[in-house]
Structures are given as C-alpha cells and as structure tokens.
Amino acid sequence: MPAHNGVPRYNRRLALVFAIVPFCAAHAAPSANTIWQFSQIDGQYPVSGVTVNRAGAISGTTQSGGSATYGTVYRLTPPAAPGAAWTEQTILTLSGTDGFDPSAAPYEDRTGKLYITTKIGGGNPACVNNSGSLPAGCGSVIELTPPPIGSTSWTESVIWQFGGRDGNTPLAPLIADTHGRLYGTTALGGKQGDCFGYKCGTVFALTPPAAGGTWHQAVLYSFSGGADGSRPHAGLSMDNAGNLYGTTFQDGATLACPLTYGCGTVFRLSPPATRKGAWTQTTLWNFAGGTDGANPFGGVVLDSAGNLYGATSVGGNTLCFQQRGCGTIFKLSPPASGTGAWTETLLYTFTGDTDFDSPQAGLLLDGAGTIWGIATDGGGTHFGGVFHLTPPPGGGAPWALQQVLAFTSTTCGYSAGNLVPGPGKADTLFGTQVYGGSVACASGAGCGSVFELSGAGFKH
After folding, report:
1. What is each CA distance from 362 to 168, 204, 308, 344, 374, in whole angstroms?
2. What gap in Å lies between CA 378 and CA 391, rounded to an integer?
3. How far apart are CA 247 and CA 242, in angstroms?
4. Cα angle at 173 between 299 and 63, to 5 degrees?
C-alpha cells in the first residue's frame, strides 16, 4: 500500500455502473440496498462515511477517481417515489492544486454549504510530496456553495492550504460551533515531536471572515508524540461547554504496544478563559495495549451524562492480526467530583469470528442507548459488517453484540466510514463501502458504493 506524507492510502482502480441493487448481506430482517455504485469517472473508493441533511440528501467524498483521478465530492438526492433510483451529481472533481485524496465526509452548515478536507495537495509550496508526479501541498479545506436557482454548478473556494507547521494530512471530518467556526485534526504537522520524520499532528480551528475577506486558522494544540499521543486520525466531538474530545492513534504513556509505536490516547481540549489564552490539553486515557485495546482510528461520542464511547482497532486479546488483538469497545466516565481521573469500562472485546474485528470507524449512539458501529474485518467472511451493542440489564459490562449486517464478498468490500442516521424518525442508516459495487475496477473489486440499511431497530 503506497504512502503519501507517511500516511497509507488505498490503491486506485477503474469501473462503471450505477443504480439500486440488492445488497450482499446475510440477514433477512433488516433491508439493505446499494443505492449508488461508483464508476471511475464519478469517483472511486469512498473511504469516508456520508453526511445526510434534513431533506434526506446525501453528500460524500471519494478518495480518488474523477476526470483528474484526484477524488470527487458527490451528492445523492433521494427518489421521488419509493423504489425509484437515487440521483447522483458530482459536485466537484478535484484538480490536485485544490486538494487530493479527500478521506472524510463533508460538514454541511445551516445554509447548505459543504466543507471538506483533503489529505494532500492544496497547492502550498511549503509541502513537497514524496513523488514529483503529485501536486504540492499538505492538504486543504474547501468550501462548496450550493448553486443559485436555475443552475447546477456549485462554487468552490479553497479556504485553507496547510503548510506543515499549521498542520499536515487532515484525515477527519470537520465540526462547527454555533458561530460557524470549524474544528478539525491533522494526522501530521504542527510544531512538536518527531513521528517518523514528521511532526506529530494538530488540532486546529478555522474562523470565518466577518464580512468577506479570508478565513483565519489557528493551531489549538500540537501533539508531541510523547505522553500526549500523536497522529490523530479521527475528528472531534464538542460538549455544551465548548470542550473538544478526540483520540490519537499512536504514542501516549504506554509505548510497549501491539504495533510497537504507542497505544494511543483519548484527550480533551478545554477553551481558554480569556480571548487570547491557550487551550488546555488533558489526556483522559492512555491505552495499555492489553485488555483495554490500542490504536483507535475513530473518535469518541458523548452521551447526555458526559460519558465518552469509542473503539480501538486492535488489542483486547491476542486472537487477530498476528496476535495484536481484535479490538474493543470502551466507555470513559468523568469523575463524579469534576476533578480527578476518568474511569474506563471495557464494554466489549471482539474475537474475530462471527462478532467481527478491527472496528476502525467511529460509533453511533441511538436514543435507546444502543451503540452502533462498523467493523472492517471478521464476521465469518473477513469483510466485516454492521453491529450493535445493547447494555445488560442493570448496567455494567459486557454488552451484548448483535451482528446486523455481514459483508460477504469482494463485490461488497468493506467499510471504513461511520454509520449515519437518515432524516426524521425513520429507522434508516447510511454507510459506504470502499470496494463495493458489482462491476469490477482494474484489479477485480468494485469502485465503491453507498448503502442504505432499514428496519434494523435504530431509535432516534
């Protein structure tokens, strides 16, 4: 698997096809359909999940494909009648100078604008990529404005080009506060540490211009690669007080880990008390690589009581990935007094058999307290699938896992993006598959697909 800026990316391939087709899952109870299959020209390899707005329109990104092969941003409009086909529009075909390799779902604001991050490219000459054939830049943030009435063309604006010290290689989706300020992470870059020849990652904010003009970027925190962790791959969550919560994939206080370069952390960034003050970083949990797991790819989600839930991609046992472990689901509870150590509860340890392994996406909490997620492997077919976890009566652990949807073949591929609920109160979830689709790309797998899962019991 080739790498750019030190971060692996998926291989490129080719294809053709679109339409609603029966999904390849094993279970009869939920209804699962592939609502879009990508061809090379409209994109391929949707590594991220999707964004669903109130009208039910789905927006997402593909890591490559498009006329320039640098990736696309797409929009799926729901059918006017049940059973009819979804309509797809390629909103943006990336050129490389505006960005390359979008690996995260868009953020959609209240006006319908979309904001995406691209992993590399973007045009900043401060970052020269490993191959002279690739566009310069450490990644970018792009704003897409919906077309005016009577037009179908979206307006693209590159609102930030990363240059290294302000961040490098953003892999995660953005979130926003009530003032329209955007927050995100970069897996590399910043001002601290040495992580395989690169700085160790950042948390950043982008403030919109008051009236015209340019956006302002600020690095809220640079990771050192020590006890505070390194390489945040996932996006952030925000509580009502404006605190930001996230994970780092590597490093932390425990270095002797299954992947040998640190087990990762869960962190909090607290806003400054004064306007120009510094944000305060607190490491809430250091993974030890044993029963509690290691190396979280996904972020954490909050419940109404302030508890955090997340997944580790390995650890928990020694059954998977050359004895590195199959991954875990964990809960972190804040101290009752407001100060002191957080408490970790191990909710579930995957075994790599019918219960899947390697959950790399973030989790989803429904209104009944059920945890929903996607695993990238296991499930008896080694393509992963969708699961949910329900708490035992009276609380505690372990939670009960149910396999909701098993991906069964290379035409179905595997999923690395988050599950997203549909609009309203419908029991509908949406997701993507990196290699999904029934028509093969160059090496035999599909170019990727978007699926709809109905009737699985999701409670809004």
Report:
1. 22, 20, 12, 17, 8
2. 22
3. 17
4. 110
Give which of 10, 34, 142 is closest to 88, Cα–Cα.
34
Pairing of strands 72-77, 58-62: antiparallel
Give strand pairing partners of 116.
142
Q: What angle do CA 403, 287, 120 make, to 5 degrees?
A: 80
Question: pLDDT (tens digit, 9 = 90+) per residue, 160-215?
Answer: 999 999 999 999 999 999 999 999 999 999 999 888 888 999 999 999 998 878 99
Distance CA 445, CA 96 (A): 25
For residues 327 and 317, what is the distance between their CA atoms, to the nearest angstrom? Answer: 8
Where residue 20 falls among pLDDT bands split at 50, 70, 90? very low
Which tokens is 18 given? 């679109």
Burial of 260 per CB tally in 10 Å (0-12, 13-18, 19+): exposed
Secondary structure E strands in 94-130: 107-108, 114-118
End-to-end CA, the chain: 39
Question: How far is residue 179's CA from residue 186's CA, in Å, rounded to a whole number?
Answer: 22
Cα–Cα distance, 359 to 375 (Å, whole number)? 4
From the list 334, 348, 356, the residue with the least C-alpha distance to 391 is: 348
Residue type, 73: V
Element (H, E) at 267: strand 265-270
**Percent of the chain scored above 90 by pLDDT?**
63
Report in angstroms the alpha-carbon separations of 22 from 18, 35, 420: 12, 9, 20
Number of other CB atoms surrounding residue 291 within 10 Å: 12
| C-alpha span between 57 and 317 (Å, rounded) | 41
Range 14-19, long-range pairs (CB < 8 A, 24+ positions): 14/40, 14/44, 14/441, 14/442, 14/447, 15/39, 15/40, 15/44, 15/437, 15/439, 15/440, 15/441, 15/446, 15/447, 16/40, 16/41, 16/439, 17/437, 17/438, 17/439, 18/42, 18/88, 19/85
Number of residues that this document lists for the chain: 460
DSSP codes, 329-352: EEEEE--TTSSS--EEEEEEE--S
Contact assessment for residue 268 and residue 245, using Cβ atoms and an 8 Å cutoff: yes
Give the CA diameter of the chain. 59
Integer Cα distance of 458 and 455 in angstroms: 8
| CA 12 remoteness from chain centre | 20
Distance CA 27, CA 456 (A): 10
Beta-carbon-side half-sphere exposure of residue 198 (alpha carbons within 13 Å): 25
pTM: 0.91
Q: What are the residues facing 267 on neighbouring strands?
A: 246, 283
CA dist 344 and 333 (Å) reads 6
